[in-house]
Amino acid sequence: MADMTTPHTALLAALTTEHFVQQSAISATISEMASRTTIYIMSLSSALVATGFVAQSPEFLQPFLLAVLPSLFLLGSFTVLRLIDIAAENMQAHIGIARPTTERWGRMLLFSFPKSSAVGQKTTPNRRCVPGRSWRI
What we know:
Blueprint: H1 7-54, H2 58-98, H3 102-110
Helix pairs in contact: 1-2, 1-3
């Protein structure tokens, strides 16, 4: 085993991976928010243009509006509810990045590596040690 992993490098790798995963979640939520908003704005715009065309014939305007307005209202309501949910997910990902995770990861890594040895002495990672037991290889 030429390449030894120290607790410091393992902690850094774990924190980098967690940060990358949280950034990916943030990117996905922002993308979904943009696409849902775009879909709603496009359908609202299309309904307004269609209403303008149908308004030229008064006998078709009322049935058209009775079909289009409730569907636009439902689509808008569902869009807003989902956007609120996505914003909460986004906030959770931001909180996940901001919170100090070194304590949690440090505890995990503390029990998967042996105590420091003298300089130049070879050490190998031991089995996970249960807190309260002695450090044995």
